[in-house]
Amino acid sequence: METKTKTGIGNPISRLEGNLKVMGKAKYSSEFSFENLAFAQGIQSTIASGRITAIDTSEAEKQEGVLKIITYQNALELKGYNGRFESPSTKGISPSLQTPEVHFYGEYIGVVVAETFEQARYAANLIKVTYAEDQHQTNFEEHLDSTYKPDKANGNPADTSWGDLEAGLNQAAAKIDVTYNTPIEHHHPMELHNIIAVWEGDNVTAYASTQMVENAVTTIAETFQMPKENVRVITPYVGGGFGSKLQLREHATLGIMAAKMVDCPVQLTVTRHEMFTAIGFRQHNRQRMRLGADQDGNLTAVGHDTTSHTSFTEEFQETCGLMTRMLYKTPNSLVTHRLMKLNLPSPRWMRAPGEAPGSFALESAMDELAHELGMDPAELRIQNDTQVDPSNDKPFSSRQLVECIRIGAKKFDWKNKWNPKPGHTQKDNWMVGYGMSASSRAAPYLKSSAEVTLKRDGDAVTAVLKTDATDIGTGTYTILGQTVAETLNLDIKDVQVELGDSKFPVSPGSGGSWGAASFANGTREACINAINNLKTLASTDEDLTVAELMKQAELNELTATGTAAPTEEFDDYSVYSFGANFCEVWVDKDTGMVRLEHFVNVASAGKILNPKTAYGQIIGGITWGVGQALTEHSEVEPNHGNFITRSFADYHVPVNLDLGKIDVVFVPEEDYIANPMGVKGIGELGITSIAAAIGNAVFNATGRRVRDLPITPQKVI
Ligand code: MOS
């Protein structure tokens, strides 16, 4: 047997598709071309609540190139639609144009199909809609008395408790009771949401930008009440998603419906402007934190109450209290989630749905508590560490939170730098501060299948790997290529990876931080099965190379499939990734501008399949965390109830200049309870608790505790 390949797992190799992407040769869903391709432009409501009373399409219809105008009056009846909107699921029906009712400003109320994109857009602007408008409810503050307990908060129990929170607070030597607000934020993947729908008889192919291919197939089949076999979804490259592409949304329904009605391929792209109402967003969360500790810093009580908003059509609440339930040991805990209905679009999943805003509250509150106790905030976290999940009494499969904190503190030189007195360090016109936070995110592992085909040419063997998994910019092509190279002992240059086609074996798609662990284990199973099949065919038990095995078996080609899935043991443990963040901020005394000087992130996330792509994931998470902390905020205009932050000119995302030096450390870890390859997820861990570390550093620099994100200059000065 030859020496192990240098391109297998654990090596920081560059993205397999990197060159294609920078050369513009990676084909995204909007880049497939068809003869007679028509273009659709959505029409959006201009009221937040009420119903359509009249639609005048006469001017639009006269325009050159216009093929069809579809509204609720002539839309295809979606037989799966029962007059109600179901709670959002990543594979649920996505009804559109079924009623004249308007539930929020910017709801799709029609679509224009024309020969060119420009014609469709122009005609859409000529359509005149008359409404009977109702009083809209878009003001969070005004509806706080109408909150209710949802059935679930993103699949988790809305409320959990153990012990007695009040008793725990009463016996505390130090306690805090503070409220944090995080604003509505919007997803902004670089690649716009898009669909090209192509019907052939009863079959439809959707070139759709989506994170989850199999769910997209189910959504289309359910929405149009057709057999899944008649639906094909293709998405070889996805330019970011972050949760906004977990489900095919209304735009996909419109595109598929339009293609059917005009009888030719139709492309519909959600514009950047439309993205603010068409694809979901992160909801505004109000979070009350009550923490108590004895004088040694042992938590006696942890209370976390979240109030948020959903739409009038669907019920969704991200689980802000999820991390609060499991991160620290405490005898008394109460975590609740409440919702109100507003005439805004349905909030949806956004990177670390729950943990991202929830960790801002918990980890800011821990900092406030440490300040009350006169304790080093890093030590307070270590003091309350636990190897058993307090929410369910299950052991953690692996938990190196204390190691993350210690390694990060050392790398950052926390002991020498941190000073409990706010405003301790001044440099010219800057106030310098230090902050830290701990983080955790569940590391799910789901059933995932793959197929590998080996081809032999003399002594040379190449492999082609196929799975319907997606690469949303995260490095799926690369880590799966490495998994094949590792398991079959090939060089990665001899491995080809094909993704994002519903014809390929089913994976759980990219989401929930389960992608890498699930896809890689499925890929490994396919490769192991290939080797075992070859050994049988070659009638040998010897440890030969795949080339030798194929030769001995007199085979030039072999295909094997494999499926990985969690065993029952997985459910006996709590499986989470952990992390710690340390940061230094500089705050301008006159302007209140916050500059991020240095950030250290430490993650324990099982085996790191590729340190380079993993580093990219963490950097991306930190960058978004910086946006959450300092710049991102969607604003609702109160009179009309629409979002007025509708471009990058007024919705600010951080750029390179906003980021300082970033160090990322992965703690060595292989968690074979999590899965056979020992991999845990990092995608959502990367954003978790970033904003808290920055906010804590701003407090340390200035003495200002800003509890309402984002921390804009006027809140600091
Ligand atoms: Mo993630 S919010 O599951 O894409």
From TrEMBL:
Keywords: Molybdenum, Oxidoreductase. GO terms for molecular function: iron ion binding; oxidoreductase activity. The keyword Oxidoreductase applies. InterPro entries: Ald_Oxase/Xan_DH_a/b (IPR000674), Ald_Oxase/Xan_DH_a/b_sf (IPR036856), Ald_Oxase/xanthine_DH-like (IPR016208), AldOxase/xan_DH_MoCoBD1 (IPR008274), AldOxase/xan_DH_MoCoBD2 (IPR046867), AldOxase/xan_DH_Mopterin-bd_sf (IPR037165). It comes from the Bacteria. Pfam families: Ald_Xan_dh_C, MoCoBD_1, MoCoBD_2. Signal peptide: none annotated. The keyword Oxidoreductase applies. Residues 23-135 form the Aldehyde oxidase/xanthine dehydrogenase a/b hammerhead domain. This is Acylaldehyde oxidase. It comes from Leeuwenhoekiella nanhaiensis.
